[in-house]
Amino acid sequence: MSAPDEAPPPLGNPAVFQRIATVLNGVQHVIVEHECALSTAHASSLRGLQTHQAAKCMVLKLGKIFGVCVLAADRSMDNRAVRHLTGASKLRFARRDELWDLTGLVPGCVPPFGPPVLPWPLWIDRQLADRVHSADRRLAFTPGVLNRSVVMDVGDWLDIVDGTVGEFSKA
User: Fold this and answer.
1) Which residues on adjacent β-strands are paired with residue 148?
2) What residues are paired with 33 via a beta bridge?
């Protein structure tokens, strides 16, 4: 699935958006349509939310497999902690071409899901998962396209994803 050199940058993958819509069927959520957002800060302002309410989703090459790590957008990933949690001796971010070829996604629109939305294991940072106990339980993320966002309860999201929770973020 190679992106044509002359084409404008794609907004993401509508098929991934449709898989998310199917998974969210019957779950309370809001879809926010907005201009194309190329950063978390920009997307958060378009959503009318704070950056800490957004999920930052990264596709990583963990040894021989890919995986998705999700953390609050105002936090940084601790690579050593991710390697420990996943058992990977090496890790790196998926390259733009790998992400496109494997999923039809571009950086910035990776959603916080493993199967059946994305074909890889999902790891969730404990700080994000613990927001289920906070007063503000909103979670916002891009659903495979850069011009839409989903806002939902973090507890509802945790109920529908099959992820492993661990500590791998730092302030």
Assistant:
1) 33
2) 148
Buried b (16+ CB within 10 A) or exposed e, 147-158: bbbbbbbbebbb
Instruction: Give the helix/strand (H/E) hosting 160.
Output: helix 154-160
pTM over 0.85: yes
Q: Is the dihedral of CA 136, 54, 142, 40 positive or negative?
A: positive
The stretches of 4-134 forming alpha helices (DSSP H) are 14-23, 40-47, 79-86, 96-103, 126-129
Quick one: which of 130, 104, 86, 88 has its CA closest to 10? 104
pLDDT tens-digit readout, 69-87 = 999 999 999 999 999 999 9
- Nearest to 151, CA basis, from 16, 31, 48: 31
